[in-house]
Recover the amino acids of this structure.
């Protein structure tokens, strides 16, 4: 019995560590590169989409309740679309703050940033306001869009953390999947954008 309880506490601890929901959020505009987890561009979480394939269209409400479609950006802007597990969790806040701190660099590279999670509009509003996020957050409550993009769950529990770069023609140019290497999503996306004519 003690062995079963210990095992359950172990798995609960791993889950809390990965989600980071009990750890403090970022409070400033500085970011550091972790590099602790190996790069993994072909993770099973993102195996339904291939580089060079057309990105699935979507239509979701943003943090202000306005519908946003992928097709709205075609011919106008490259996109960095990142799926993340949860507003205000440690890793997701680190990632969002890193996108915030580099937002102008992305704009100069001709890209718009869009974050997507299953959180509702009110949660996105609070998250965006709390960390002064200048980019779009979309609510994918039933995870339909995540499924279209092949974003599964880590360890069968935690929603995946996967970033896509989509060019102006709607073609997927990059996928990067890493649950723990939060800031690598930003550097990978930026490197890809530099290679898009």
């Amino acid at each position: 019995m003690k062995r079963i309880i210990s095992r359950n506490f172990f798995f609960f601890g791993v889950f809390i560590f990965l989600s980071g929901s009990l750890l403090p959020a970022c409070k400033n505009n500085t970011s550091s590169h972790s590099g602790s987890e190996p790069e993994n561009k072909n993770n099973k979480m993102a195996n339904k989409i291939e580089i060079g394939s057309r990105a699935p269209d979507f239509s979701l409400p943003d943090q202000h309740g306005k519908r946003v479609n992928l097709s709205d950006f075609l011919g106008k802007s490259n996109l960095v679309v990142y799926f993340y597990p949860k507003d205000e969790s440690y890793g997701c806040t680190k990632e969002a703050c890193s996108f915030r701190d580099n937002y102008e660099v992305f704009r100069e590279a001709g890209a718009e940033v869009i974050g997507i999670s299953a959180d509702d509009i009110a949660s996105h509003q609070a998250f965006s306001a709390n960390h002064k996020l200048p980019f779009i957050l979309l609510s994918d409550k039933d995870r339909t869009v995540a499924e279209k993009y092949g974003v599964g769950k880590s360890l069968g529990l935690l929603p995946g953390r996967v970033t896509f770069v989509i060019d102006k023609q709607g073609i997927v140019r990059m996928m990067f999947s890493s649950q723990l290497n939060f800031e690598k999503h930003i550097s990978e996306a930026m490197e890809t954008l530099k290679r898009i004519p």
In short: The helical segments are 2-19, 90-101, 103-108, 121-131, 144-148, 184-195.
